[in-house]
Amino acid sequence: MFKEFKEFAVKGNVLDLAVGIIIGAAFGGIVNSLVNDIIMPPIGLLLGKVDFSNMFVTIWGQHFNTVAEAKAGGAVTLNYGLFVNTIINFFIVAFSIFLVIKQFNRLRSPNLPEAPVSKECPHCKMTIPVEATRCPHCTSELKLQ
């Protein structure tokens, strides 16, 4: 059983998965920064200087200015602004992954030329189907190619 596990781990599947997870985590940090530091501030400015990260509702009526103050005060909050940020993060990650996979598939499977469907009869020079064994025009027998 140890030998089988060693073969599985060394085969590349586990290493590929580990590299994917590490790169994914780093990519997630980049996307979080993109959303929180680049995208949301202009959107908040356009909407009247709204800071989405501090948009929340306290459940028991207490008033706090920021989510951090509410958490420090032990209040239960619904952080809908952070939820909006998370949704935007998701769409950016999903679109980025879509673009990467689209490019990978384009590079992986090159467009092969289509197989010809017709050929020229060597005797009468008329166009005939590739699979023809006898020319329908001059009735000559054809060699299979």
Task: Report how far apart the termini are.
Answer: 53 Å
Average the pLDDT over all residues and give the rounded result.
82
CATH architecture assignment of the largest domain: Orthogonal Bundle
Query: How many DSSP-defined strands?
Result: 4
- Strand % is 5-15%
Structural shape: elongated
What fold name goes in the CATH topology slot of the largest domain?
Non-ribosomal Peptide Synthetase Peptidyl Carrier Protein, Chain A
H/E element order: HHEHEHEE
- Derived from helix and strand composition plus strand pairing, the structural class reads mainly alpha
Main sheet: strands, sense, barrel: 2 strands, antiparallel
Count of runs of 4 or more consecutive helical residues: 4
Percent in helix: 40-55%
What number of structural domains do the residues give? 2
Radius of gyration from the CA trace?
Answer: 32 Å
CATH class of the largest domain: Mainly Alpha
Describe the structure.
This protein has 145 residues and is mainly alpha-helical. It has two domains: 2-112, Non-ribosomal Peptide Synthetase Peptidyl Carrier Protein, Chain A, CATH 1.10.1200; 114-145, no CATH class. It is built from four helices and four strands. The strands form two sheets. It has a two-stranded antiparallel sheet. Strands 3-4 form a two-stranded antiparallel sheet. Helix 2 (13-46) packs across helix 4. The two termini are 53 Å apart. The mean pLDDT is 82.
